[in-house]
């Protein structure tokens, strides 16, 4: 399974140079950038673990790329994404969010179906990865 989340999910994996170009674009728009990681990428699981604090007042993407490299080295089998926030509307709004790393093996999701009143079908799903405890998912 290939998880499709974020702005560039339809494109091939971004190189570090392409990630740097997107971060530069965010910085030119005065959007603070943050790095997040998780081993449970369920689409409704929107609050991932933050890698440090959002990086404010940067002019060049080098600092963010260094933090990204540190996060990748610490969590080699996790999903990692870069977020850029736009506060121009008076509230924090996600302007850009994209995956920069995924595990080597993505096990997929289990679709569950239950019948409710009047024989209506209700569907739900859960990732196979959550069958393992946190820290042991994706072969970690």
Relevant CATH superfamily of the domain at 16-107: Ribulose bisphosphate carboxylase, small subunit
Order of helices and strands: HEEHEEEE
Looking at the structure, the CATH topology of the domain at 16-107 is Ribulose 1,5 Bisphosphate Carboxylase/Oxygenase
Strand content: 25-35%
Largest sheet data? 4 strands, antiparallel
- Give the fraction of residues assigned to helices: 10-25%
What is the CATH C-level name of the domain at 16-107? Alpha Beta
**Largest beta sheet: strand ordering:** 2-1-3-4
Radius of gyration: 17 Å
Count of helical stretches: 2
Shape: globular
Q: So, CATH architecture of the domain at 16-107?
A: 2-Layer Sandwich
Terminal CA distance reads: 18 Å
Uncertain segments: none
| Secondary-structure content class | alpha+beta
The average pLDDT score comes to 86
Beta-strand segment tally: 6
Structural overview:
The protein is of the alpha+beta class and 140 residues long. It has a domain at 16-107: Ribulose bisphosphate carboxylase, small subunit (Ribulose 1,5 Bisphosphate Carboxylase/Oxygenase), CATH 3.30.190. Helix content is 19%, strand content 28%. The protein has 2 helices and 6 strands, in the order H-E-E-H-E-E-E-E. It has helices at residues 16-28, 62-74, and strands at residues 33-38, 49-50, 79-86, 93-101, 109-115, 121-127. Strand 5 (109-115) and strand 6 (121-127) form a beta hairpin. The longest helix is centred in the first third of the chain and has 13 residues, at 16-28.
């Amino acid at each position: 399974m290939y998880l499709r989340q974020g702005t560039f999910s339809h494109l091939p994996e971004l190189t570090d140079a392409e990630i740097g170009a997107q971060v530069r674009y965010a910085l030119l728009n005065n959007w603070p950038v943050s790095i997040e990681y998780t081993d449970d990428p369920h689409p409704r699981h929107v609050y991932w673990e933050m890698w440090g604090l959002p990086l404010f007042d940067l002019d060049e993407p080098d600092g963010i790329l260094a933090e990204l490299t540190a996060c990748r080295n610490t969590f080699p089998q996790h999903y990692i994404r870069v977020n850029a926030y736009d506060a121009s509307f008076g509230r924090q709004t996600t302007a850009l969010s994209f995956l920069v790393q995924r595990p080597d093996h993505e096990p997929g999701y289990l679709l569950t179906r239950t019948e409710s009143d009047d024989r209506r079908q209700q569907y739900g799903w859960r990732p196979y990865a959550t069958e393992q405890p946190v820290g042991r998912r994706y072969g970690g």
